[in-house]
Amino acid sequence: MAEFFASRDFAVNSSTLVKGLRISEADDDFSSGAGPEVRGVLLDLLLAMAGRKQVLPRLEGSGVEELDRRIAAQART
Known about the structure:
The chain is built from four helices and three strands, in the order ααβββαα. The chain has helices at residues 2-7, 14-18, 42-49, 64-76; strands spanning 22-25, 31-32, 37-40. It has a three-stranded mixed β-sheet. It is 42% helix and 13% strand. The protein has 77 residues and is α+β, with helices and mostly antiparallel strands.
């Protein structure tokens, strides 16, 4: 499921949000993309890719700050 959201903009701009970031599931072997890592459990990753800032504190990695910036920018548009 995370691969689906990481690879395309479906109901939300999930692919756009994570472009240039590496999304890694902490509870599985899944990872997608290249760049600064955003790591967490599947549900938190999916919620973050849907633009939910509330889960960002539960995510780890050098890409979380960039994902936060992108979600904030998307909310302003």
